[in-house]
Design a protein that fits this description.
Layout (H helix, E strand, L loop, with lengths): L3 H4 L4 E5 L13 H11 L5 H16 L3 E5 L2 H14 L3 H5 L11 E5 L10 H7 L3 E5 L7 H5 L6 E7 L12 H10 L4 E4 L8 H4 L4 E5 L10 E5 L1 H9 L12 H16 L5 H16 L4 E7 L7 E7 L1 H4 L3 H10 L2 E5 L8 E4 L6 H16 L2
Parallel strand pairs: 1-11, 3-4, 3-5, 5-6, 6-7
Antiparallel strand pairs: 2-8, 7-8, 9-10, 10-12
Helix pairs in contact: 2-11, 3-11, 4-6, 4-10, 12-15
């Protein structure tokens, strides 16, 4: 069969950037792919499928309730809509057009109001909510969060992510204490996080994950949490949820991926270090390059290779080097968050050992010309 790459003239990609939406996030295990194919080939009573896979996931994770949605972004929008609409039949159908007065304010620590590829605030608006920022760009305490609570508050939203400001931020537990004190639901966006029950146990009412990131499922999302709010999220399938419909294949595929995620052996940070070590050694033998192991800034068990370029002696800045590495026959993508400091990181979870060799050769060509 002619490959898809040839058919559509697509570029081969080496993904050393991690679980990135712009590159297709992750490649699920064969067991997950099989279940996706099974789902596509059969009919189901969808409500039943949603409820029973949700119960199954909740059982696996020992939480009250869960539902598979189409993405973490859809999870945020539908969770916001859920806590605004609740059981209201008219608001469900007229979320944005209704002038019924109900609490719609969603309090977010200012340093959490980020752009993860799309803005958090856009998802909140999509869910009929209005972001109220608490604290400052560089700090938010429990008191600063509580100070924004009014009768118009619908929920507190906490973004647990490497994208957010990390310093001087209240913890999920502290946010949960504020939520409890004012009898408000706490929504946690933990899209790329690896712990599927931690934030629930810290007191969140709804916790959102991206299906293709840590869980390595198909394109999908997971919302888990307390019984009632998750039921409200499910109701949104007759409201804004319809514009973000998940298919039967995604529901079944994510459920299978969660089960595997919990039982299958996971690559540890230490194993990543072992995989990268020969690569790092070779990079360090090149002029104008230095490489070393760095650990995930958000505290996850992920080790990466930090590569620093001596821009002066190479005669190119790091952005230019990154651009050239994407232009070859195979496009190579790194994590570029620190490119302005002359550094990038290679995330090797989705990179094979032969691909590491390819990366090394491409970098060598760029800096030595051979
Ligand atoms: C990736 C990400 C999302 C969005 O996840 P999707 O499943 O791609 O919609 C939301 N929030 C954070 C913090 C993320 O990292």
């Amino acid at each position: 069969m002619q490959s898809i790459y040839e058919k559509y003239q697509l570029k081969n990609v080496i993904n050393a950037s991690g679980r990135m939406t712009i590159l297709g996030v992750s490649t699920p295990r064969p067991e997950v792919v099989d279940v996706v194919a099974y789902g596509l080939n059969h009919f189901f009573e969808i409500k039943d499928l949603v409820n029973k896979t949700g119960e199954y996931i909740a059982g696996l994770l020992k939480v009250e309730n869960a539902v598979v949605v189409s993405s973490a972004s859809a999870g945020i929008a539908q969770s916001v809509a859920a806590v605004i609409v609740k059981d209201d039949a008219d608001l469900l159908l007229n979320l944005h057009s209704s002038d019924k007065v109900v609490p719609r304010e969603i309090i977010v620590p200012k340093g959490h109001n980020v752009n993860y590829g799309a803005p958090v605030e856009t998802m909140v608006s999509l869910g009929g909510g209005k972001v109220i920022e608490a604290g400052f760009a560089n700090e938010c305490s429990a008191d600063q969060l509580a100070a924004k609570v009014t009768p118009n508050t619908a929920a507190i939203l906490y973004i647990k992510s490497h994208h957010t400001v990390q310093k001087s931020m209240l913890t999920v537990t502290e946010a949960s204490e504020v939520a409890k004190k004012y009898n408000l639901p706490l929504i946690v966006d933990a899209a790329a996080e690896e712990d599927l029950d931690t934030y629930y146990h810290m007191g969140a009412d709804l916790v959102i994950y991206s299906g293709g990131k840590a869980i390595e499922g198909p394109t999908s999302g997971l919302v888990l949490g307390k019984k009632q709010p998750v039921e409200w999220v499910k109701r949104q399938s007759n409201g804004i949820g319809r514009a973000m419909k998940i298919g039967k294949e995604g529901i079944l595929g994510l459920t299978q991926a969660i089960e595997l995620y919990l039982t299958a052996e996971k690559e540890t940070g230490q194993q990543m270090v072992e995989k990268m070590s020969p690569f790092i050694e070779k990079l360090n033998s090149l002029p104008s390059i230095s490489a070393r192991v760095v650990w995930d800034a958000a505290g996850r068990d992920i080790a990466r290779t930090e590569i620093s370029f001596d821009e002066k002696s190479i005669g190119k800045n790091t952005f230019e080097i990154m651009r050239l590495l994407k232009q070859g026959d195979t496009a190579i993508y790194f994590r570029e968050y620190k490119a302005n400091e002359g550094k990038v990181e290679a995330d090797v979870r989705s990179v094979t050992v032969p691909q590491l060799e390819t990366i090394y050769i491409c970098i060598r060509k760029l800096v030595t010309g051979e």
